[in-house]
Amino acid sequence: MDKDRVIGSAKVVKGKAKVAIGKAIGDAKLQAEGEADKVEGKAQNAVGGIKDTIRKD
Description:
Blueprint: H1 3-25, H2 28-56
Helix pairs in contact: 1-2
Domain CsbD-like: 4-56
Pfam family, one: CsbD
Protein name: CsbD family protein
């Protein structure tokens, strides 16, 4: 498994936590940061998946 997949997954989890905390305390900025982290993490995870696929060939 590529390190980008691990880091990307961690960013998604971090983003979900920020969104949940932001909703709980009513902090729109924290929610937005969390959503951005989730998107960034998903993209990084996808890049890692592509790298894994390339290595398998």
